[in-house]
Amino acid sequence: MHRRCDRNRKRSKRRAIYCPIHGCYLNSVSQKYQLYADRVGQLQQRGIPRRNALILVAHQTAVPLEGEWVEAFWCEQCQSNKWYHVRKSKNNTYEIKNVPPELWQHATGVIDPKGNPSVGEFTRRQSRLINHNSIKDFQFVG
Question: What's this model's pTM, rounded to 2 decimal places?
């Protein structure tokens, strides 16, 4: 029998996402980065029939994937942050896997880990500097 306080609880419960290595509860340390599909094959892998997938891709260039996202979690046992591909099923259970590199190309709002290709090496190096002694880079040679 459930306790009365459990029956009357209106607040949502914590998501039941556990570490695949240790089995301990994972704490989220980032926002959810939603995924999208832009090819018919990606939609077919998720159970959408070929004809419907063709219509979706022809109508929309990018189809958002419901119930799938990329998120970073903190594991108490590992003492580290790890990125996982999270998939929510119909019965509110979560399946997590390590994020394959090609999946990062299909996440919305993610910063490219290699950096913006249009930014030069000098600007990238200056943005990483912590102190303000970077005036040495601006001295004239001569």
Answer: 0.69
How many Cα neighbours within 13 Å face the side chain of 113?
6
Q: 46-77: b or e for each residue (b if 16 or more CB lie within 10 Å)? A: eebeeeebeeebeeeeebebeebbbbbbbbee
Amino acid symbol at 141: V
Amino acid at 14: R
Other CB atoms within 10 Å distance of the CB of residue 17: 19
Residue type, 31: Q
**Of residues 38, 37, 33, 36, the one with CA closest to residue 109:** 33
| pLDDT confidence bin for 50, thresholds 50/70/90 | very high
Distance of alpha carbon 98 from alpha carbon 81, whole angstroms: 12
Q: What is the CA radius of gyration of the chain?
A: 22
Alpha-carbon span 8 to 109, nearest angstrom: 38
Output the CA torsion sign for 119, 109, 95, 25.
positive
